[in-house]
Amino acid sequence: MNKTLVIASRNGHKIREIRSFLRVLPQYDIYSLLDFPNYTPPEECGSTFEENALLKATHAAQALGKWVLSDDSGLVVPALSGAPGIHSARYAGEEASDKENQKKLLLDMEGLEGIRRSAYLECCLVLANPEQVVKVIQGICEGEIVDKPHGSNGFGYDSLFVKHDYKKTFGQIEESIKNQISHRAKALEKIRLSMELNPIGS
Predict the structure, then answer these.
(1) 37: cis peptide before it, omega within 30°?
(2) What CA–CA distance (Å, rounded) separates 55 from 39?
(3) What single-letter DSSP state applies at residue 169?
(4) Hey, is 154 helix, strand or coil?
(5) Catalytic residue among 29, 35, 72, 158
(6) Alpha helix stretches (DSSP H) within 162-201
(7) Could you give the CA distance from residue 32 to residue 25 in angstroms, rounded to a whole number?
């Protein structure tokens, strides 16, 4: 019998990315919070990506009585004292669109040049069951912010972020390539290997 794993997100982009990594594990039936419309996630009140990921994983695991994989991630610009950081998805306001968040970021970075445009994407994944937290994993992807959006692929700040040693933004490269080099890809690869070696529920 297959094991059930719930992705603690309703973000279609994140769900698709995570599913693309876990599809090589046919022993798992992968669900998301879209399959549990009556579930209300907790307020993300942590001060770090890890704290928020832990909160989302433990809350969902206990409320749903299932194994859960949560993700909390975002963009960090050291020259902006770490902003947008944990507020990446709502940098320009609670209901802000990706374009509005990008516009605010570019305005805040006006006048910054060279190394001061350095940034990194950080992802924290947490695997938990109703009784305990089983795994906490981080992934980081370093690069820089360009001066205007390029490309329409991806989501979030992808069209502004260029990884070190690459010439195109995440918004310009193919999804298959991004899914090999991104912050989430690095964290998901570790989770996948962990689940292969130590199947959940065993």
Answers:
(1) no
(2) 15
(3) B
(4) coil
(5) 72
(6) 175-181, 183-197
(7) 16
